[in-house]
Each structure stands twice: as C-alpha cells, then as structure tokens.
Amino acid sequence: MIRLLVCEDQALVRAGYVTIFDAQPDMEVVGEAADGRAAVEAARRLNPDVIVMDIRMPVVDGIEATRRLAGPGAANPAKILVVTTFNVDEYVYEALRAGASGFLLKDAHPAALIDGVRTVAAGDSLLAPAVTRALIGRYAERVRPASPPGAQVVDVLTRRELEVLRQLAAGLSNAEIAMRLSITPETVKTYVSRILTKLDLRDRVQAVVLAYRIGLVSDPR
Length: 221
Fold this sequence. Notes:
The chain is α/β, with parallel strands linked by helices and 221 residues long. It has twelve helices and six strands. The protein has helices at residues 11-22, 36-46, 62-70, 92-98, 110-121, 129-135, 140-143, 151-156, 159-169, 174-181, 185-198, 204-213, and strands at residues 2-7, 27-33, 50-54, 80-84, 102-105, 126-127. Strands 2-1-3-4-5-6 form a six-stranded parallel sheet, sandwiched between helices. α9 (159-169) packs across α11 (185-198) and α9 (159-169) crosses α12 (204-213).
C-alpha cells in the first residue's frame, strides 16, 4: 500500500483527493493537513510514502514545508508531489529546488494524479513534458546566470550525456529523447542514471533545475 498524506487548505479539494486515493486498491490516505506547519508535523509523525502538497497554504506555505521535509537539511527526505494551479506557476521552480519530486496541475485528470503518486512512490520523478516547458522554461531567465554553462558540469559529462540533459530540461520524456537521438528508451535511462550519479543529483527534477540554473538550455518561449 502507498501511504499518503494530503496537504491542501481547501477542504473541498482535499476531500476530493482523499476520495480519489482511498478508492485505489494500492493507496491509503493516512493523514490530512490544511496548512504547511501541520503538514510538516503530520509528515514527521506519520512518515507517509508520498506527500501530496499544495503550494499556497496558510501559516507555512507549501514551498517552505517541502524544503523542511525534502530539502538538503532533511535527514530522511520525503517524496513530495506538488499540485498547483497554472496561475501560480512562478512558485513551481522554487518548489522543485526545495526538494519536490515532481508536480502536476490541479486541473489534471484524476487518472494522471493517481499515476503521478505511483510514479513518485516508485522513486521516480514526475515532470510532465508540456508542463515542464510552460513552467520551468518560463522562468529560465530569472534563474540563469550571465556566465556560460557551468564548467564543472560540462567537464564531468560526456557530449552525449550533455545532450540528454538538454533534452530533459526541454521537457521531453525518455521515449521522446530516444526518438530524437535515435537510441532506445533503455539507453536513455542509462544516460539519465549516469548524469544523476556524476552530478550527485537525487532525481531528474533536480537535473532539470540544474540545467536551467547553469544556462545549459535556452528559454523555449
């Protein structure tokens, strides 16, 4: 069973999440929280497998709650799926930097939300290709330094690994990267694993954030 903590300040939305998750044979909602501070307390008490986190919450917002639970200082980083609305997309980049394993939009189909939880629970990250381009790419200029791409990253990665990282940052799935580079999806997975290991990154979400931070990709707008 995937044990879930649902963190959402709107009672109706929260109840909808709980209904959707509890209806799944492999999921169980073990706790709920209506603000960020309560979310942190509940997560530390219940130790859920996945936390579904809203960004805009009272007392402590979802970004800070995510940072406390999954950031660099977290002893046992939680797996957090951030769910947000498109009109607050400027917060998504910060949520990913804070340690979120991925994000979805609140208007996503329930099936996408369920699949997202299973993906994060399995230890993978969730970056919907189209959403990645729309959200992270939109704020690339704000976070990109004026200097060329980080020399350390360029030196550590091979030319093919750099190309795979660029494609990840553009929001392409493994299958799309495989098609574009004329390699198999399994080979893409191998490259992604090497990239994460060489750069000491937790998942592909952090790889995408790093690619934008060092200016490895251009703004897709």
